[in-house]
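Below is just one:
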Amino acid sequence: MKNYNTYIHKAVLLFVLVFNASCDSDFLETPPKDLIEASDFFKTEDQLKAYVNGFYNMLPGQEVYEEDASSDNIIPLLVSDRVRGHRLTPVASGTGGWSWGNLRTINFFLDNIANVNDADLELKYAAYAKFFRAYFYYNKVKTFGDVPWYDSVLSAGDEGLFKARDSRKIVMENVLEDINAAIDELPSEVELNQITKYTALILKARICLFEGTFRKYHNLGDYEFLLEEAASAADELIGSGAYELYNNGNVENSYRELFDVLNQNTTETILARDFNADFITHNIANLATSPTNGSYGVAKDMINSYLLKDGSRFTDIPNYDVIEFYEEMQNRDPRLTQTVAGPNFTVYLEETPEIVNLSGTTTGYRVIKSISTRDQWGNKASVNDIVIFRYAEALLIFAEAKAELGTITQIDLDKSINKLRDRVGMPHLIATEANANPDTYLAEMYPNVESGSNKGVILEIRRERRVEMFMEGLRWDDLMRWKEGKKLEKPFLGIYFSGLGNHDFDNDGNADVYLHDGGASGAAGIPNIINVNERELTNGTSGNFIPFNQTVVFDEDKDYLYPIPAEELILNTNLSQNPNW
C-alpha cells in the first residue's frame, strides 16, 4: 500500500479489479458469483491487502482544494448551484450523492474476511474497512441527515433494500463504533499515503466535531458527548508526538511551502494524495490562474478576517473597508500573503516579482496557496501532492470542541491555537482578552454563535480555522454545522478602488491597474486596463469589484441538507424526502 494512486498497476490486483468492475451498478446486492467466489478469495494477507487497496479510491483528490470554490471563501467564474441557492431535486436513481456502491464493496469484504482464518489479520484488515465505512457514512450524514444503515451485503430479494432511513443518531453511533475499532486495530505508524491509527484519530476528531456542533447549533440535543470525543481524539493525536507543525524557520514562507512543495512529507501531513507527471496530475493551479477556467478569487471578507501582525483586528481600523490594496496588505498575519498574492508576489521558487495580473481572478485577490511552480499552471499540469489530513486540523478541533463545551483554558489555547500562531510569528490568543471584547465584525458574520462567556474565544477560533484551513475543503461544512447558511446571502465582494485612473499595487511609483469607464487614453504600458462598465464596482466608478452579481437565497428550512433523488422515492416507498424539498 505504498501509494494508493499506483496500486492499479500491480498485477496482484487484477482479480480485485475484475470484481470491482462488476459492482458499478448502484445496488446493495451480492456481486455476480460468476465473476468472484468469495469462498475462494480473502484467504491470504496479499489478497486482503489487494482488496483493501481498492478502498483508497474513495478518498478525494483535487476536490479537497476545489471545495472552497463552492463556499464563501473563493468565488470562481461559475458559482456553484449550492452557493447560488439553485439546487434542484435530482431525478435519476443513484445521483445527487445517493449512491451506495462503495458501501457494498466495503460490506462484501467484511462479510467474507473470516476466510483468512487468522484472527490477527482479520482484526487488522477489518479495521481498514471500518475506517472507510465510517468515512462513507460520515459523508452521507453530512449530505442527507438520516440515512439507512447497512452493515452487510443484501441479496436482491432482501426486504432490507427497501428500509426506511435510520436516524442520524443511530447512524452516528455505528460510525463511532467503526472508527473506534479502526483506531484500536490500525498500525501506529507514520505513513504519508496509507491509512493508520493516526488517520483514524483525525477522522474521528473531524466527525465528532462536525456532528457535535451540528447538533448544538441545530438544537438536536445530545451533543456534549460528541464534542468530548472530538477533543479526546484530537488530544490523543497531539499527545502521540507523531506529528508537529511544519516549520522551515521562516515565518514568511513556512505556511505557503507546506502546500506548494512538490512532494509532501510526514512532518505535519497525516495523509496525502500523491501526484506525479508520469501517472496522475491535477488541475488546481490552472483553476487558480486561468482567466477562462476557474479564475479563482478570494472573497473580501476573507481578506478582512486576517489580523494585523501585532494581533489587533484589521476591521477595527477606522474606514478599513475603503483601504486600497497595497496598504491593506501591510503588517498583516503572514498567512495572508502566503495564501493570496500580495505586493511583490513571487511565483514559488522564483525570485523576480510577478507582474500584477487581475485577469485570472474574479475578485482581484489571487489564490497562491497550493499553487506551485509556473510549469504546473497549464491545464491538468499540477503534480504537487494534495493534503487530505494534517496535524494543524487536530489543534483546531481540540480548541473548538473545548470552547463549545465551555471547558477551554489558556493552557488549552497554548497547546493548540497558539502553536499555529507561533509558526507565523503572530501574538498569542489570550482567552480573557477575547472574551472581554468579542470581535463585532465576526459576531455579525456568525449571528448564531453561542452568546455565553466563551463567545469571544469561539469567534477567534473560527477566525483561526478559516485562515489556517483555507482551501482545504472544510468551509462549507463549517457554515452548515454552525447553522450559518445565511452568511451566503451577504454580498460577494473583491478589491476596493477609490476611483477611476491609476492604481499602484506594489508602491513602486508605477501604475499596475488603470480603471476607466469608456476611455483608456494614457493607459499605455499599464498591465491591467479595466473598463468598469464591463467589470463592475459597487459604486459605479469606485468601490469593490462585484465578482458575482446575483441575489442569493439560502432557505433555512431546507438548504442544510440535500434532497434524495425522485426515483429513489418511487423505488423505495419507505423513504421520505428531506423537509421542504
The first strand starts at residue 74 and ends at 75.
